[in-house]
């Protein structure tokens, strides 16, 4: 076993920003808007780094798919303790249409290329709320999946996992290699402090294109319209 | 901030140590709820007030306080984010 973990990190509009829909209803305003790492991805990175600190795995590789700015998100993961980064360069129209299916194909290709033992992802992104990438990646690789993980422990070549499900907690044991998606209570992510950001500048980020991985990022989905939720009417008793 | 040229070696170590903790706090303070500018102005004032302190014990205590403020800020940011996620995604 390589002892290598791939962690997917997504650059999203910061959770505290008030989202505004574009006047033409084709999407939300992203220009000049503060972006940061998806909160559930932060939890995934933290879990990977903790596993490395416990010497249960050897290397943490942070992956992000998107334009040049996605490298900032990878840098944050490196500052949190990831060893190196892979930036899958997707921009323009391709980026606008990038969704879980294409990202899963990319992650599956990278997992094979990097001989990954584990893929750690956030359970969902706070922008699209798809909650699909982890599941699709596992299916494409024919790997077991532990989604909504609130506890993870490695036991030899198996993983004990506690999942947060409706009505309670589910305890499962899965084989490796596997895909795990992180839920809110899995851990408390460390802050990427300035000294760690400085140190992380020495770590390498490699840029690849989806075509290099044999992945076609054409989307089969078309966004018809994006609109604000209806204004809430005052309640009536 | 005392210019490096007028520092002894020991003082230089202290100067650069102080500068690192000031910069670390400045970086952390960007997202302060009352505004990054508000935080930066008060941070600068606090460091300027204590510029002339020479006693190593006092310096150690001040640096420790700076580290305490840093941990408090990290906790603040984490709690805000955690509570927002909990409110949005979980029905309790």
Automatic annotation (TrEMBL), chain A:
GO terms for molecular function: electron transfer activity. Keywords: Electron transport, Mitochondrion, Transport. Residues 25-217 form the Electron transfer flavoprotein alpha/beta-subunit N-terminal domain. The keyword Transport applies. Belongs to the ETF beta-subunit/FixA family. Heterodimer composed of ETFA and ETFB. Identified in a complex that contains ETFA, ETFB and ETFRF1. Interacts with ACADM. This is Electron transfer flavoprotein subunit beta. It comes from Astatotilapia calliptera. The gene is ETFB.
UniProtKB/TrEMBL annotation, chain B:
It comes from Astatotilapia calliptera (Eastern happy). This is LYR motif containing 5b. It comes from the Eukaryota. GO terms for biological process: negative regulation of oxidative phosphorylation; respiratory electron transport chain. Residues 25-67 form the Complex 1 LYR protein domain. Belongs to the complex I LYR family. Pfam families: Complex1_LYR. One of its GO terms (cellular component) is mitochondrion. CDD domains: Complex1_LYR_ETFRF1_LYRM5 (cd20265). InterPro entries: Complex1_LYR_dom, Complex1_LYR_ETFRF1_LYRM5, ETFRF1.
């Amino acid at each position: 076993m390589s002892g290598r973990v791939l962690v997917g990190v997504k650059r999203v509009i910061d959770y505290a920003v008030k989202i505004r829909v574009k006047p033409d209803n084709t999407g939300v305003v992203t220009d000049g808007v503060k972006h940061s790492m998806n909160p559930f991805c932060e939890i995934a990175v933290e879990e990977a780094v903790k596993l490395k600190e416990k010497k249960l795995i050897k290397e943490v590789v942070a992956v992000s798919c998107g334009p040049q700015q996605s490298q900032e998100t990878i840098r944050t993961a490196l500052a949190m303790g990831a060893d190196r980064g892979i930036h899958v360069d997707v921009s323009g129209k391709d980026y606008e249409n990038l969704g879980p299916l294409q990202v899963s194909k990319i992650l599956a290709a990278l997992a094979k290329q990097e001989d990954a033992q584990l893929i750690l992802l956030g359970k969902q992104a706070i922008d699209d709320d798809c909650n699909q990438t982890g599941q699709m990646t596992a299916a494409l690789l024919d790997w077991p999946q532990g989604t909504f993980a609130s506890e993870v422990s490695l036991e030899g070549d198996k993983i004990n996992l506690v999942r947060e499900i409706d009505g309670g907690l589910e305890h499962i044991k899965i084989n490796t290699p596997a895909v795990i998606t992180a839920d809110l209570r899995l851990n408390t992510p460390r802050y990427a402090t300035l000294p760690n950001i400085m140190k992380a500048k020495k770590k390498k980020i490699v840029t690849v294109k989806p075509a290099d991985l044999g992945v076609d990022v054409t989307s089969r989905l078309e966004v018809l319209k994006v609109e604000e939720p209806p204004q809430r009417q005052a309640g009536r008793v | 901030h005392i210019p490096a040229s007028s520092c002894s070696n020991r003082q230089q170590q202290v100067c650069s140590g102080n500068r690192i903790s000031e910069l670390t706090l400045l970086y952390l303070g960007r997202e302060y709820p009352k505004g990054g500018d508000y935080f930066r102005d008060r941070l600068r004032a606090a460091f300027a007030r204590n510029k002339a302190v020479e006693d190593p014990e006092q310096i150690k205590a001040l640096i420790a306080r700076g580290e305490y403020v840093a941990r408090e800020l990290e906790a603040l940011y984490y709690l805000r984010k955690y509570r927002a996620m909990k409110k949005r995604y979980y029905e309790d």
